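re: that chain from earlier
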Amino acid sequence: MNEHVAGAHPTRSLDARYYTDPKIYRAEQAGLFARTWQFAGHASLVENRGDYFAFEVAGQSLFCVRDRDGEIRAFYNVCQHRAHEMVQGSGNAKLLVCPYHAWTYELTGRLRSGPNVAAVPGFDRGEICLTPVRLENFHGFLFVNLDPDAEPMDAWFPRVREELLDYVPHIARLKPLEWVEIPEKCNWKVSVENYSECYHCPVNHPTFATGVIKPESYDIQPQGHCLRHTTECQNLDRMSYPIDLASSVHAGDYSSWFLWPMFSFQVYPGNVLNTYHWRTVDADNVVVWRGWYTVDGVDSEVIRRLAIQDRATTVEEDIRLVESVQRGLRSMGYRPGPLVIDPACGVMSEHSIRTLQEWMKAGADGA
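^ sequence. v structure.
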């Protein structure tokens, strides 16, 4: 739709209730979060056979484990006997033993044994297995989907797998160097919207806009259920950290792949991979985990300094913005305003927010 056509009505932002109503958040938990691809953790957490870690998606406790054949599996974190949780935190185990009654499962999830089960007439171990969850390994990043019939990630996010490899040729060797935990007092959608436009960048992110990217070249376009951010790096004499333009084809480029609904791969100039992972708390709170990665997890002064710079500038600036927006959404004086949608797109346009809010409304309304 072209808002500049005579008689056309501008697209307006979503009603405040989509960000403040606990009922909508509960509907998202039961529907949207349970049928979309959600980040579980990095494969380096289950590097060895028997390694496992627990996590939560859509209010469900789950865990990943690497079996004896080297395959990474995901299960609901519940014993099939009387519902005790199987694991806590992370660790390594040759077998999965329920702490309640010592029912024991293979790393494949199949029941191996249980105290005195042989005394039960007709008891068939072969019928009992931990409940599996769909899992995909996306360049070492593990994602799960509670919907067994969900389309694969490559259908949700076309071309992203190939593009990431093009921008980060060494991605298979990357391991987390640092995680930064960022609590934000806002609805998760407020934080995601803020990430998904750069209309606010020139005013609010001076370090990012003048020391990392060229805002005038910034654009965001949908790519399946991905929002693809692209821009050029700032002039080398203005860059806030050193990069070698000759190191790879995309050394001078910035790109981000936001995977709906709550994860983003972000490649800074110099082929520096970092990630965003939104973890919801309730309707008014979210925690954003910022991950920074290096080859084999080897320490890097440049990456450490970049993470510190990012936390002190862009992150702090965004916290103030999104928390102010959340307070404003509860104002009786707020009326959803028109989005600034420029047909030419670019940094001073909110066309990406229109797409994002279409996904948000469908997710909240159960479509």
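Residues 154-365 form a domain with the Naphthalene 1,2-dioxygenase Alpha Subunit; Chain A, domain 1 fold (CATH 3.90.380.10).
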